[in-house]
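ARCHIVE RECORD
Type: protein–small molecule complex
Small molecule: biotin
Source of inputs: curated submission
Record status: active
Notes field left blank by submitter.
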Amino acid sequence: MRLTPAHLQIAFRNLTDVRHFFFYPTVGSTNDKAKDLAQKGAEEGTLVIADTQTAGRGRLDRHWFSPPGLGIYLSAIVRPKVPAESAFGVHMAAAIALAQAADAQHLQSAVGIKWPNDLVAEGRKLAGILSEVGIQAGILEWCVVGVGINVNHTRTDFPPDLRDRAISLREICNRRLDRLDLVVQFIDTFWLWYDRYLEGGIAVLAPEWRRRSTLLGRTVRVETAGETYVGTALDLENDGALRVRLESGTEEVLHAGDVELVQYR
Ligand code: BTN
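STRUCTURE (tokenized, with ligand):
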């Protein structure tokens, strides 16, 4: 089914958590649109979806490859009444929901969560999440969770520099997938985990997140803005930071970074 406003309207009929949606055939970035709407007071449950983005963004303002007709580019606005420090729970709920929505397509490969933003399969990036928050006087006002999923891309649809690092669902299951179906699956599952998080906090999400983590217990190299750390990824902190035991034995809590698994032979 094509991604059109009419099809989305029908597909969202039974999803009571979806209050409003905006569909754009082409947009700069769905996150930018959603942030603008959130700042103007859009209510929780507002979605922005596009067929293609001309300025799709990832972490650290990296470009997110967003060709038309192939991927999912979606941003959701939520307004959780939680302390700003635990907003990472919304991001975790999205990561778990993405992995489970992918699983529901009966994949042969496991889908893992690679801290902080990536969903990976077969060692390559399948999807990314960009969460942005609005905080006023220490109060969390809104959270925009943006997800980009590589769905129906073939190898040659990716630009050469991404071909070894990115993967699509189509490549994993050898068939084209229905993007509309995936959007519904993701939104439905996201709200399930989001509600659980509102009731029980990050602790409720942590077991599934840990089970899916591709890093915990492994030796990792984390590059942050100024430093490189090598050590064992131990666990996730309540604010979403990664605790790493360095080779020296000391522990570091890292809030963001580029992570690679270190292979020892
Ligand atoms: C990352 O891996 O660094 C996160 C990528 C997030 C991409 C999505 S696509 C929909 C939404 N709009 C954006 O501009 N970015 C996110």
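CURATOR ANNOTATION: The mean pLDDT is 94.
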